[in-house]
Amino acid sequence: MQIERRFLLEYNDFSTILPKSAAKTQIKEFFVSFVPEIRYQKVGKSYFLLHKSGERIQKFGISKTEFKDAKKNKITKIIQKNIIYAEFNGVKFEFEIYEKELFNLVILNVFLQEGEFDEKKFFENVKFSDISNDKRFNSANLALFGKPQSKFDTKKAFKILTKNPNLKFKIPAYLDSFDAILTILRLIFNDIKIYKDEFLNDKNSESLHKFRISLRKFRAVLKQSVELFEPNSANEILKILKIIANKTNEKRDLEIFFEKLSFLNTPNLLLETLENRKKIANDNLENLFKSQNFEIFLASLETFLGDESRSFSHTSYEKISKKFIANLLLNDMKKLKKALENLNENSLNSDFHFARIKIKNLRY
């Protein structure tokens, strides 16, 4: 019975165990479906369709035209690698040397008919790790998530992103979901503090508008990812954020109302009344932002977001950030689809408002 073992090799020194005159075959492949698993391959100058059902893989020869046509339906980037075959002391080896998106990734497949394989002796001068049971390195997961991230310094990333606000945080697929969401929340929280200070300095309605947008983003992200966190802490923060949001509503609503009426033939007395209400709402908001309770809340939120010990994290959650976020988006789209399908001429304003909020959450 043939046994396959797989090893991850260091790119810089794997060549020391390569046979000197080994021939290599280039493979390009992409997926068009994961359920069932269907992929297309170009192996050298030949073309194939592979269909996987359970553990069984069926392979069919196809034409170059069929391969090109299938590219139109690909749902992953094209994986490109070189395969080198070798045999030592009756043991067959297959080196997978990846290129392009997966550059630096080298996997060695070892095919054993019987007996043991002494990897320590064989890899005497090569760094390696056994990935025989690590599903992250199978073809489907490499196509979906890319090369598994061994290390990602979220602290360093946060510092770089705050110093360069025009940069966008592109989450590595394998970054821990808790670290990914916490980094996103910290970036939004940083904006909240900036726009709060701007509003206190210039009393500008645009600063308040940006503050409110950042607040909505923070609430949306935290609410959608609440399963990552200890429920009591996350829910308490969401309650307080909702209170703060409500307190900003009056001033923002009065500003929009005043702006619209200013272009109409509105009595001066009404405009003066609105102006006075705007001033009162502005003073109330300014007092809120300067209050000790607000500062205490910001400090508590800072502690929550700086949770290096993970005392606020849930014990069990989907660790791969790409999977976690994809599931969140899928659930949001399902809810939005249902909400939109239920709308009609007899729907209540609250039904339209619900759909509108779902669209905003999806955007955030």
Description of the molecule:
It is a single chain. The chain has 364 residues and is α+β, with helices and mostly antiparallel strands. The chain has eleven helices and nine strands. It has helices spanning 64-71, 119-122, 139-145, 154-163, 177-202, 205-224, 231-262, 268-290, 292-305, 321-341, 349-363; strands spanning 3-9, 24-34, 37-43, 46-53, 56-62, 79-88, 91-98, 106-112, 128-130. It has a nine-stranded antiparallel β-sheet with strand order 5-4-3-2-6-7-8-1-9. Helix 4 (154-163) runs parallel beside helix 5 (177-202) and helix 7 (231-262) runs antiparallel to helix 8 (268-290). The chain is elongated and about 95 Å long. The mean pLDDT is 83.
